[in-house]
Amino acid sequence: MQKRISLLGVPMNLGQIYKGVALGPTAIRYAGVLERLEELHYHVTDYGDIEIKQVAPSIDEVCRLRNLDAISNISEVVASKVDTIVKSGEFPLTLGGDHSMAIGTIAGISKHFENLGVIWFDAHADLNTPETSPSGNIHGIPLAVNLGLGHEKLNTVHAYSPKIKQENIVLIGQRDLDPGEKELIKKLGIKTYTMQDIDQLGMRTVIEESIAYLKDKTDGIHLSLDLDALDPSETPGVGTPVEGGISFRESRLAMELLSESGLITSAEFVEVNPLLDQRNRTAIIAMQLITVLFGKKLL
After folding, report:
1. Any idea which positions bind Mn(2+) 2 (predicted)?
2. Model confidence over 265-276: pLDDT tens digits?
3. Does residue 298 lie in a domain region?
4. Which of 169, 220, 233, 290 has the most CB atoms less than 10 A away?
């Protein structure tokens, strides 16, 4: 793992409807992520938060997506900042913020790789398009956007599309899929480990198979971890909780195995909402998983 880390907050809250998720980066910092990474002998540069100005909520009259123009503009800013971080040779670690931020983060990262792999650790697939989205919330479509699907204002962020290939994606932890997402996963043949698969195979097998699947055909792997992948009994501070999720112990094991692989080249931890949390519990778990990803051991 790269020993120099660039920490960047993306207090995105326009991709969904709940207040508070913009405070996610601050909550994770407050949980001590910077100090814990430095204890592991990383050199961490904290670039603070991207400025996100509040705008009046809007719904596009044609595609029915919420806050389309604002998210498109912010995604360009995020992509440019992350692009600069990757050019510097540092590991980009971004904190959110709702998952629509992945439109910008992956746009800034993927241009530096021929075949970027993506591990999407999430209760949801985020593979909706404007035509299939039940809500119009853009935090439910970023993975589809990065595949080059959906609205042009989003999938052409940073002036190229697509950012990733369907065969370079692994979904882990899904248990709430919309009909259009199920259809797209099957149509594109996207590698998916639902909660049923995790229950049947065990997390070690899921991660080992994911690493084997991506290792030889990718030149870098981005981890996009939504805290709602975990069961809401452990991470209550998320906007779209779904019962029956991954345990903290399973998540920790996943981070240990990914750390040991040495293949993760960028990461984001998203959807921490302190206003829905209990004593910053979700942010603390995010901090703990981040430190394990960067090599913290129990012994």
Report:
1. 124, 126
2. 999 999 999 999
3. no
4. 169
